[in-house]
Amino acid sequence: MDPRRARRRSWRRTPGRRLTGARARSAEDWWWDRLAPSGSEYHLLQADSMLLVLPGPGPVRARARAHRRITRRAQRPQPSGPAATAKPRPRPRPEPAPEPVPGPEQGPDPGWGDRIPLEVLVQIFGLLVAADGPMPFLGRAARVCRHWHEAASQPALWQTVTLSPPLAGRGVKGSVKAEKKLLASLEWLMPNRFSQLQKLTLIHWKSQVHAVLKLVREFCPRLTFLKLSDCHSVTTDALIMLAKACHQLHSLDLQHSMVESTAVVSFLEEAGPRMRKLWLTYSSQTTAILGALLGSCCPKLQVLELSTGLNRNNTPLLLPIEALQKGCPQLQVLRLLNLMWLPKPSGRGAALGPGFPNLEELCLASSTCNFVSNDVLSRLLHGSPNLRLLDLRGCARITPAGLRDLPCKELEQLHLGLYGVSDRLALAKEGSTLLTQKWHHTLRELDLSGQGFSEKDLEQALAAFSGTHGGTHPALCSLNLRGTRVTASTISSVISSCPGLLYLNLESCRCLPRGLKRAYRGLEEVQWCLEQLLTSPSSSS
C-alpha cells in the first residue's frame, strides 16, 4: 500500500477516536455532576463494583477525576504506523483553580453512642432495666465501648436484681456446678456493682444460699426486699446475720421455699419492729410464725400474705381474728389464699376487736368452698372504712345482706365468683341489687360468676349502672357474669351505659343467643358484642 495513503487513513481515524472519547467523557462528567454537583459538599468515590456518594470537600472529587483520566489514557489504544512517531501537539494548560480554604480537621466519626451524654445514656439504660432487669443487658452493654461501660457500671442501675442459676442438668451435680459458677461471678459483682442493691430475688438455689446471703450482708447495706423462691438450706444464722447487717430490710418473701420456722421466728425477733411486708407458704410449721405475729412481733406490718404451695394443704388454719388485729394494727393488705380457714367463733356478748382501720385489700379467695360466713366477715371489717378491694371467690356462705352491712362505702373491686362449687348448695336467688345500689358509683370491677341470681334480680341490679349521676358515667370497666342467668337486653343496657367497659365475660350464660357466649376483651370487642345483641332476633323480640 502506498505510504501516503496509509498515513492519510490513520490521520482520519485519529480525530474520530478523539471525538468519541470526548463525547464519552462529557457524558460521564454530566452524570458525575448530576450526582455530586459542585458546591454541594459531596464527592463521589468509585470502586470496582459500586459508586458511593460521600460527604466531604471538593478536592477529593478533583483527585478522583484525575485518577479516572489517567486510567482512561492508559487504556486507550496507541495508533500504529508513522502517526505513532509524530509528536503530539502541545495543548494549552488550564489555569489552576484556587485552592479551597482548609476547614477544621474532621477525624473519623466515633459513632452516636459516644456522642450521647453520660446522664442521658444512664436514663436510657434505666428504662430498659426497669422493663427487663439489669441482667444480662448491662453485662452485654458494658462490652460495647468504654462510654457504655461507664454508663452500665453505675450502681444506680443495679438496684433490683434477680439471680437464678441456669438449669444445666436435672441431676444434683449439675445444679451444684451451676450455682458455684454463678457464685464466682457474684464475688466480683457484689462489691463492684451491688453497692446500692435494694431488691434481691433468689430462685432455684439449692446449696449455695448461705454463701450468697453472706455476700449480701457484706456488700449490700441498703437492701430493703429479699425474696427466696424455691430455695433450700436456708439456715438460721444466715437470716439473723442478714437482719443485723441490713438495717433497711423490711420485706421478706419466703413462699415456696424450705425454711425452718425457727429461722423465720429468729429473723422476725431481730427485724420485727421494722418489718412492713411478709409472704409465707402455709405448712405445719407456720403456726410458730403466726404465733410470733400475734404476739406483736411486727407491730408495723402492712402486708401479710399466706397461701398454700403447689400441693394443696388440707390442714385447717386456726387464726384468731381479734388477736391478729391487736398484733398487726397497721395492716393494709391481708391475703389468705386457697386456705381452709376455721375462724374461732366469738362467744356470746364478746366484744369486737380493734379492727383494721388502715385495711384496703382483703382476699379470702379459695378454689373450693370455705367456712367464711357473714359473721366472720363482719368481725374482720367492722373497723375498715377504707377498703378498696374485696375478694371472696369461693365463699358461698357470704350473702348480699351481709355485704350491705359492711362499713366500707367506696369499694372499687368486688369478686364474688364461685368456681368449682357444687350445684347442690342452696345459692342466693335474690339480693344482687343490694350490692350495686351501694357501690355502683365506685365499682370498677365486679365478678358475679357462678352466682344463682334470677334473671329479674340481675336486671334490677345491673340497672343501677344505667343512670348517670351528675352527668358522669359509671366507672365500671370489668364485668364477669360467667354462668349466670343474665339476658341480652340487660347486657345491652349495661354496655350502652358504661363506655369504659373493657372486659366482659359471658361464658356459659344460658339465656344468651349462641355465638355470643364468650369473653370480650377490649373496647372494640365489647362494642361488637353490643351490635350483635341489638341485631339478634332474640333481643328484638
Descriptors for this entry?
flat; 541 residues; single chain; two-stranded antiparallel ribbon; alpha/beta; 12% strand; 39% helix; Leucine-rich repeat, LRR (right-handed beta-alpha superhelix)
- Helix percent band: 25-40%
- For the record, the CATH architecture of the domain at 160-469 stands as Alpha-Beta Horseshoe
Number of strands: 16
CATH homolog superfamily of the domain at 160-469: Ribonuclease Inhibitor
β-strand amount: 5-15%
Gap between N and C termini: 113 Å
**Unreliable runs, pLDDT <50, ≥5 residues?**
14-24, 422-426
Tally of individual helices = 20
CATH classification, class level of the domain at 160-469: Alpha Beta
Protein structure class: alpha/beta
Neighbour order of strands in the largest sheet: 3-4-5-6-7-8-9-10-11-12-13-14-15-16
Largest sheet: 14 strands, mixed
Shape descriptor reads flat
Average residue-wise pLDDT:
81
Radius of gyration: 40 Å
CATH topology annotation of the domain at 160-469:
Leucine-rich repeat, LRR (right-handed beta-alpha superhelix)
